[in-house]
# Entry
Amino acid sequence: MTFYDDIYPFYPPQRTSFIVSGRLLTISLVFLVLAVSLLLILPGIRGRTRLFWMFRIITSLFIGVVLVALNYTNSWAEARMTTNATYKSFSNAVINAEVGLHVGLYGINVTLRGNPVVQFNETINYNEMFSWHGAIEEEYEDALERGLPNPILYIVEKFTLSSPCGLIFQYRYSGRFASATLWTAFCCWVLANILFAMPVILYAGYMMMATAAFVFFSMVSFSTIMNVPRCVFAIGADSFVTEFSHSFWLALATGVLCAVIGALVVALNLLVPEKMKAAFSVGVDSCEDEEDSCGEGYLNSVFLDRAMISPLTEKATAELF
# Structure
């Protein structure tokens, strides 16, 4: 083994690239366990009501997991390109790689993947996370000390306080307000489920509409980053700017879904309130749901005679004494 170890420019090997977010994995597992637990009660519900409750559980948990997960995803805005760029400082090595920038509400994720992955006897596959809720300058200095590739350092430098682009101020504050409104939407979703279970159908519909409103507010808050002059990222001979990505459009779809559910619940509650109460009450059974569940009943005449005679006998005995 030589001093250089075939790595430019004498840095230790890079750490393993990021595969999956631990927070997102935890959120997914929690809601998955909750979904399985709630679906286990379905065999105890008879008739067509079972299908309605299954749809209700799946839809409600989908909205809940999306509202929580959107706070921790790194795909609200993205940009990527394939270019030729200098690999690391103090080196003339030029690599062909795909550079990606993924922006979330709590930070950014910068990716660098070589084309091909192995170049200059080194695996070029980086996925670095940087959060602006702490001191991003310290994370940038740590990246310099670890000798990360130049494309990653160049992008991260744009988000430091000393950068003339001022991206840190745009994304930090818009991300904070978007996250706050998403957590408020999650609280509204919890209240809506409680009201559905009581059941207070009309107010549950109102809370679903409030959930949709706060989701839309979070989108408006994050979209303010597009209202200011956007900084152009130039790497090599190419450049790119960020655009809205998967999480933003998922938030839009979830908000529309909540708005539609809330509007339907309010409208149907005003038009057919009794049927809505019956639909959201597990204790309401109907002979139409299952032909075998409701059959002919038989009365015990001896028991009824005793029930009628007993009160009269007790009254007569009380009058004698």
